[in-house]
């Protein structure tokens, strides 16, 4: 217990030092961006007069819990095996494996507590009692359950990449599904305590407690058994063979013959295809989910067909608009990998500095990367819109042109902002998502708006992005 206190205390001291160095971001930028996002989305929801049903609220809570656990896979792996962290020296000291896993659990509980605090704020804004005992108990149990689930999922993920044991992969998937389902029920219990109950409150708390205890026992047992063998492999985070040549071929075609850009782009594509971070999997999953929702909307007749009185009026048909929004949202989701990739590569940027890579080359590589990874979005949205009969055939080619225009605009915008906040990937992710969704939404509803944005603001933004990359590589 003494060693655990020392480890946790050192981590807390390091976190306080980081917070002191980033006071402006924490106290000004973060509240400003989050507040603008909340009031903007809240206003849209109020104007649409949309109130989710009990089943929809439960589904959204389960998806939120699943995304929170999935996004933390790579981070939990780094904290368990001390990848690129000062705690790596603990492996050379007589520190028990259980103490190291407990310290990882404590670290995982911190961001999950922030999510629970946000849920408590939402409860207060909705008119609920913030100090309600059952809500606080549900959120506390949600924090512990999610932290344990994240640690177990990270252990299974690393072990599967090392041994390719499909049985353990199934165990990890089952544990992940259980954490998402139980976490969703606990979030629903905390946010909407007076709604219709699919399961009684006592059953939810009992099942969540038993699941947490079982997963914790399994995580400690597997950690003692696997740590010695998986620690070295964890440094590669799921590397796979066969993606190198594919990434090089794509980079060669996309880089337009620029050798330095080609090498960086090939490396970025290889890292993404190998799954350098769980954020890459979550971004791909959200993009695929959007396409599946478009299929459901078009095939089940949820959107009116409408009749276009002329060629140009077809662009505002509900089903055509749905296809264009289903192009913009996956493009933003896939492009969100860019700030996470830069944060992952930041400890190794000394290689670029030592080899004389210019800021323009580094920025252009990320710009091409954003365009390449988002390229499936317009193709998928257009194919689904045509195949499901949601788009008149006379408007098939114009829709394809609009989808590619959306892809080009969103990917260029996100790529231009790649080095805007390289040391704050969380804020950069929020900034890119808000800007990408705003510009993509305006352009999907009225494509000439995108032409105006590109003509009057894009060149200045591209120049600023190149200058930011140059300053970052110089270390300014």
Could you list some keywords that capture this structure?
476 residues, mainly alpha, 2 domains
Structural features, described:
- The structure is a single chain.
- This protein has helices at residues 2-21, 23-48, 54-71, 73-81, 97-125, 133-163, 166-191, 201-230, 243-254, 259-274, 278-299, 318-335, 337-345, 350-354, 359-373, 376-387, 396-416, 425-445, 447-474.
- The relative contact order is 0.08.
- The protein has 2 domains: 2-17 and 47-236, no CATH class; 243-474, no CATH class.
- By secondary structure, it is mostly helical.
Summed up, the domain count is 2
Summed over residues and divided by their number, the pLDDT gives a mean of: 77
Kindly, what is the distance between the CA atoms of the first and last residues, rounded to a whole number of angstroms? 42 Å
Number of helices: 19
